[in-house]
Design brief:
The protein has 71 residues and is mainly α. The protein has a single domain, classed as Ribose 5-phosphate Isomerase B, Chain: A (3-Layer(aba) Sandwich). The protein is built from three helices and two strands. Strands 1-2 form a two-stranded parallel sheet. The longest helix has 13 residues. The chain is flat, with a radius of gyration of 12 Å.
Length: 71
């Protein structure tokens, strides 16, 4: 719950493949958080694979990431 208070950390709580994809594409998340008792193991593994293989889009999202990094 305090990961994002650490300078440079952009932690994303992901519960679906789409949330994993968007956390990387739009927020350049660099830490992944999963609810152990809330997500089945097979889905959790797919979320991790998706999160690790999705690239940051940049563009219009760069200003937001810069703002997060400045905090």
């Amino acid at each position: 719950m305090v990961a994002n208070k650490v300078h440079g950390v952009r932690c994303a709580l992901c519960w679906s493949l789409e949330s994993a994809r968007l956390s990387r594409r739009h927020n350049d998340a660099n830490v992944l958080s999963l609810g152990e008792r809330l997500i089945e193991e097979s889905l959790a593994l797919e979320i991790v694979r998706t999160w690790l293989t999705t690239d940051f889009e940049g563009g219009r999202h760069e200003a937001r990431v810069a703002m997060l990094n400045a905090m």
